[in-house]
Design goal:
The protein has 285 residues and is of the alpha+beta class. The protein has 8 helices and 16 strands. This is DUF4357 domain-containing protein.
Length: 285
């Protein structure tokens, strides 16, 4: 076992067969998830690992060869039984995948979390320049209520970091420290993050929306929210909804009203990374 430090996180790296050409196991010390990078010709070795004899749910990414531009094909999925699902992919030629990254739970985790992570991961991969998503039929099964946004964010971050550690940084979030970064806060906690561009607000994936609405919320903003829920851009997350992908609003107020569930001024609610409201920013500009 080799012990490394990834930023401030400690991770153990195990060469399962003692060779870098075989299965490599990655395990963040502070995570309930562990991951395996599996060459396709080592699939049987993975299936026969003693600690995987029982069912394990998780996320898997099938990875193909690079094309002439250096982009690699990927297929992202979720299963309640990773080993069995990988068996199906090994026998059914979806595409010529060369290795699989499997990220599984070491402790019981509600499957709804992984279903939501799958949806977010697919949407992130669509916007990644160095990979080609080959999922032909995106999972449209309605997501059940996922309580605990902090838990979901932590799991999503672990999945992203595991893939980056394996050499496939396809799920990295948009840079939130750019000059046009803005945010909404509630009780001292950030509710939503976004970018302000030409009077439009791009609300970033992972941002929250209050599920409860007040009487002051306009019919138009209610319709926007309902369409976001219908198209599963917003999915249930405890007392909130969570954005599974970035979404462009035509005005700061529309975005803020949907987030807070009431009639508010976007220019007074949205703040820059320096803590100035948009109203203050334009008054000083």
């Amino acid at each position: 076992m080799i012990e490394l430090v990834n930023g401030s996180r400690e991770v153990s790296v195990t060469l399962v067969a003692g060779s870098t050409d075989g299965i490599i196991k990655y395990d963040f010390i502070d995570s309930v998830l562990e991951s395996y990078l599996i060459p396709r010709d080592c699939y049987n070795d993975f299936r026969n690992l003693k600690n995987l004899k029982s069912r394990h749910s998780g996320i898997y990414v099938l990875i193909g060869d690079n094309d002439e531009f250096g982009n690699y094909e990927v297929y992202i999925g979720y299963s309640e039984d990773i080993v069995s699902r990988l068996t199906n992919h090994n026998s059914n030629e979806l595409f010529d995948w060369k290795r699989a990254a499997c990220i599984i739970s070491q402790k019981p985790i509600r499957n709804e979390y992984f279903a939501c992570i799958e949806r977010i991961s697919i949407n992130r991969a669509k916007n990644t320049a160095d990979c080609i998503l080959v999922n032909s039929n995106e999972n449209k099964t309605p997501l059940q209520n996922v309580n605990g946004s902090n838990t979901l964010k932590k799991l999503m971050n672990d999945v992203s970091e595991y893939l980056a550690l394996m050499g496939y940084p396809i799920l990295g979030e948009v840079d939130k420290e750019s000059e046009n970064f803005i945010y909404l806060s509630q009780n001292g906690e950030i509710l939503a993050r976004g970018k302000f561009l030409n009077d439009n607000v791009i609300v970033l994936e992972g941002s929250l929306v209050k599920a409860k609405e007040s009487d002051s919320m306009t019919k138009n903003n209610k319709n926007i929210k309902q369409n976001l829920v219908k198209n599963e851009i917003l999915v249930p997350c405890g007392e909130f909804y969570i954005f599974t992908e970035d979404y462009v609003f035509s005005s700061p107020s529309s975005a803020a009203c949907v987030a807070f569930g009431g009639n508010v001024s976007g220019r007074q609610c949205w703040k820059t990374k320096d803590g100035k409201t948009l109203k203050e920013l334009f008054a000083s500009g």
